[in-house]
Amino acid sequence: MKRPVIFLILILSFSSLLFSFPSYSQLSRDQYQKLESALGDQSFFSGHLTGFMLYDLDSQRVLFEKNSQIRFIPASTTKLWTLFSATVVLQDSTQTIRYITSGDTIKIWGSGDPTWKYKNFQQPDFQKIIGPYSVVVFSDANQISPAYGYGWQWDDYYYDYSAERSPLPIYGNLLQVKKVENRPEVFPSCFQGSIRTTQKPIKELERDFHSNTFAYNPATFLGREKFIPFLTSPQLFVELASAEIGKTWIYQPDSLPQDHKVFRGSPLFPLLKEMMLESDNFLAEQMLFMVSDRLFGQIDTDRAIEYILKTHLSDLPDTPKWVDGSGLSRHNLFTPRSMVAIFDKIYRILPEDQLYELLPTGGVSGTLKNSYQAAQPYIFAKTGTMSNNHSLVGLIKTKSGRTYCFAFMNSNYPHTASAVRREMEKVMVLVRDIL
């Protein structure tokens, strides 16, 4: 859904003005004591760092907070910041390619669109653009950001949640694996000849760190990992693209000329929905690639983040350390009150039906399908989990029929994430029942 830029700026400015000076609502003494007891020095949460804020979106009042000024590793709740950026910059469509034509040749620069042969998204109509030309030249000279984000763990490279970033991905930059008898068959099939057997006690097909060579142990192979990231390169991309299109692509790293055309290939909302409900890291990272390309004609996530922070988010209560789109990096640091501030902005620019469609719902959908279960759903929020860190940011509907925004962030706990979630759920049930 497109929104006039001036309309967006007015809404964001109004929201910013209100949130810059939050007033505090007076809970009853009983309500306050119950929340303080649930989160205080004698509670489960006293053994690690916990931050919490409960905020009334209608009255613009903070109802309760605890350590809301402390910075936490947000994990996948970072995707709320990516959602905001994509909504205000990309609006309703993906940023797919930039291109020029000359005679029988078309030259293409990728803009970050992740949809090509990935999941079930509407496909960019490349034949419409490429069809009339016999020579297709691809360049990645517009890519500044590397394949991996700053602070990603190196040993995540063989898990599907850590696929590499690229200007024009194909197949989600993932190798699909199927178990046939006791051996793996892969797609794209061009990788099949790069598979070797090993005596190492590994249970899945694993990729070499430095190359697209793969190994499995026939005696222990389970085939549970259905997708493995492949090592991207422009040379590999043009090989895969040529096979997919049926027309030879050539790699030539030419700079993007000022006089060029832009092709936007797919509706944005389905990507945002998948990113939020399933916490898809690859989509989140490519989303920031597209934001940068739309802003600058260049893929530079650092520059895009800096721009968003200095313009749309210049009024945050605490300046975040924000380094990627997905939250894979431990260098991200956000306070609960800044999380509430970004959610407040999202709440005011997205139609209500779209917002609820994007948010995982407790006991119903996405990453909350198996938690916060109730006869009447009451939690609508983005989760974020990595080792010793778990957060939840979103909306809670209370027994009185009111809806509040909250941010609940935990770090440095010695427990399992499931144990922390169970205790958080007790707090959120309490909030639901007393307000």
Describe the structure.
The chain is an alpha+beta fold and 435 residues long. The chain contains eleven helices and 17 strands. A six-stranded mixed beta sheet has the order 1-3-2-17-16-15, with helices on both faces. A hairpin with a 2-residue loop joins strand 4 and strand 5 (105-110). Helix 3 (79-89) runs parallel beside helix 7 and helix 6 packs antiparallel against helix 7 (281-296). The longest helix is centred in the last third of the chain and has 18 residues, at 417-434. The protein is globular and about 75 Å long.
Secondary-structure topology with pairs:
Layout: H1 5-20, E1 23-24, H2 29-39, E2 49-56, E3 61-66, H3 79-89, E4 97-102, E5 105-110, H4 126-130, E6 135-139, E7 174-180, E8 183-187, E9 195-197, E10 206-207, E11 214-216, E12 227-229, H5 234-245, E13 249-251, E14 261-263, H6 269-277, H7 281-296, H8 301-310, H9 336-349, H10 352-358, E15 379-386, E16 389-397, E17 403-411, H11 417-434
Would you summarize the structure shown here?
It is built from eleven helices and 17 strands. It is an alpha+beta fold.
Stretches where pLDDT falls below 50 for ≥5 residues? Answer: 1-7, 16-22
Q: What structural class do the secondary elements suggest? A: alpha+beta
How many beta-strand elements?
Answer: 17
Rounded radius of gyration (Å): 23 Å
Keywords summarizing the entry:
alpha+beta, six-stranded mixed β-sheet, five-stranded mixed β-sheet, 30% helix
